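Holo prediction. Input below; ligand is 5'-O-[(L-methionyl)-sulphamoyl]adenosine.
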Amino acid sequence: MSFVITTPLYYVNDKPHLGSIYTTLICDSIARYKRLTGEEVIFITGVDEHGLKIQRTASNKNVDPQTHCDEISNIFIQNWKDWDISHNKFVRTSSKNHEFIVNEFYKRVRNSDDIYMGLQKGWYCVGCEEFKDNPDNSPTHKCPIHQKILEWKNEENLFFRLSKYQSQIENLISDPTFIQPKERRNEIINFVSKGLKDFSISRTNVSWGIPVPDIKNHTFYVWFDALLGYVSAISQDMNNPSLEDSINNGWPADIHLIGKDILRFHAVYWPAMLLSAGMKLPKKVFGHGFLTREGQKMGKSLGNVLDPNLLLSKYGKEAVRWYLLKDISLGNDGDFQNKRFVDIINNDLANTIGNLLNRTSSMSRKWFDNKVPDIEGVSNDTKLALCTKKTVENYIIHFNNYELDLAANDVLNLAINTNLYLNEKQPWLLIKDKNKISSVGNIIYNVLESTRIIGLLLLPLLPDLSTKIDIQLGKSYEKEKSWSKQLNWGLLKNKSILPAPSPIIEKLEYE
Ligand code: MSP
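Structure of the complex:
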């Protein structure tokens, strides 16, 4: 059985910004971790190309929507390459395969008697592609997320009988493992307890969408279409896609990782749609916090985004990954601050981890003939060996709970403790006494061994930096062998050759 993880399918109204990179990096790190623990992973990402928002964006540019989508989707694909995202599937909702799956799914839902024609009236945010409550009924009411004035809609739409699934959805969300983190779960429980209302799944004024079969002038509502991207991604046979094929090849998803803005769609509407179609439900929906700038959500529509390409070329992807994964707790919002970013990278990666490696490898090279010391027997019960063992245990618990910030801090703390051990033991004083050479060998071996494990633990978080550490330690990591087993203490080979040290990351300068 595969472990299936998804990012949201991003709107192509503009190129990716740091918010979209954020979700994708988290998924990438989880996918890498799962693969290292021996699981088969299907990591799905992609783009959401239909709907009024995209139709308008294309029309403002005076290009046809498909040309616009091709252009922006290609930028997403290129960006994911530049950030070295390890996805297995990239979905485009304007593809024929996807359209086929949406039609097949719609037929199932219709056969369950869950579709009817009705009148849709309400205030709509084109940015969210969602009807909003407007309690004061004012025509200038703004969407709190996009700060844009809501539009009044009054049209005949097809409706989905969400209300029919009230008790099933209540049951589903009463399971504490389904929605994470728990504050988000409470919001959804509260929303569902007010009573679920049927929602419209077609539009009459949007030509840029999948046509509803047999109903003239109706296209599917963009969310009804996009959520199915997770399913169409899994279909293996591109020439002959089918729901059955996806069901047999990995559905349901183990985790949908999304921003908190789109939790309702994933934790309420989507499960109800799947129940109606007789399909299995995703096992978990994780709604992470927002990246903010000066307290406001960073977003394409608000125009306060940080250009990820600029950050990438200036600081490199390992620095940005570390900041986003280590400094922000997945459920919380995180403000991007330049000074804090520079300080964290310099302290954690350049000073604590980088210097530890460089100074120890230099000592080893100098005193032990450019090699790892040749020690007699490895001891598993030294202070450092025990500290490493505990770190590995905590790290695994944290990664399995999707607490990536805590897992990253576990690694950092191990590096801090290893530095303390080195400073306490002071091998540079002991080496002056010829009789102490074997103690010095043991100390240096322990520090190098701890550093090897630090490097391995960094592999899902900072793949390039981890590889650099491995190279500096004489390439001890064996890819074809179990990563988990290589986290055991004492595997660094005596007398392996250590190359001349070079910094694993350059120190960053303030702007
Ligand atoms: N197209 C829908 C999703 C359909 S999924 C079947 C959509 N797209 S979006 O382009 O607006 O992207 C939303 C997602 O991007 C958020 O849920 C979140 O994962 C990510 N982020 C967008 N802005 C973000 C921040 N400022 N901070 C963190 N993540 C953000 O909604």
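The longest strand covers residues 115-125. That is the main takeaway for now.
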